[in-house]
Amino acid sequence: MSLFTEDTRIETIAEGHYRAQVSTSWSIMNTPNGGYLMALMGEAAKRYAKLPQPALITVNYSGRTQEGASLDIFVERFGSSRQFDRLEITAKQNDKLVMKAMATFMAGFEDGAVEIEEQPPAMGSLEQCVARAGLPGLSVFDNVEMRLDPSCAGWTKGENRDKAEIVGWMRIPSLKQWTPAALMLACDACPPSIFASRGPIGWVPTIELTLHIKAIPTSEWLKVRFHSKYIGGSLLEEDGEIWDEDGNLIAVCRQLAQFAKTS
User: What's the predicted TM-score (pTM) here?
Assistant: First the structure.
C-alpha cells in the first residue's frame, strides 16, 4: 500500500459519518495541503455515493485543520438521478467546522477523447526540467515529485519572470496508479504560480478549491500547468490543467487563495 493510500484511509463510524487521521506527510509549514484535505473529503464522499466516479468537487476551507489529529467527515445527499449523485460534505475537528464541500458523482466517463481548444503546455523533457527539491517544513514536496520547466524555474534562484505561470511534470513516487483522490492532491501540490513572477513570497493559503475530473490517467507522470491571470489586493485566482504523458486532458481546477503583499 502506498503512503498516499495509507494516509487517505477512511473509517466508517456510522452511515454518513466517517473519520480520517490527518497525516503529517502532506503539509506546508505544519498545515495540511488543501489538495490532500480535498482527497480525504472525496474518499468519504465516495464511501457514501451511489455512483462510483467523482466528476466534480468544490471545497471551502473555513478553518485551519490540524495535522496529526482526527477529522470527522459527514456526508449528506441533496440530489440524485440516474446520471448524477450530488453530495454535501462537512468536516470538523474538535466539533469545529473546518471545511465544507459539494461533490458530484457519476457512473463513469464516456469513451473518446475530450474535445479541447487548447493544447498541453509546451515544456522540456523530464531530463531537461528542474527537480523541485523538498525544504524543511514542506513535507508535501518530499512525497510529490515536481520537475519544473526551466522557463518558469528561475524563482528558485532569485530570477523572476513576468508571467505568473508554472509548468512541469508531476508524479507521486509511492503511488502505483493514479486515482481520483490522488488527482485531488495533484491539483494543489504545485508551488503557487505567483512564485514565478514574484518569488517565494511565503504561505499562500487556499480559500476555495474546485476540481473537475475528465479521466483517470494511466501514465506515471502528469504534465501540469498552473497560472494566475487575476491578482489583486491580497487575493489571487489560480487556474490549473492536468494532462497525461500522451497529451490527454485529465482534469482542470481553479482556486481562490490569499497571499501576503510584498513591498
Answer: 0.94
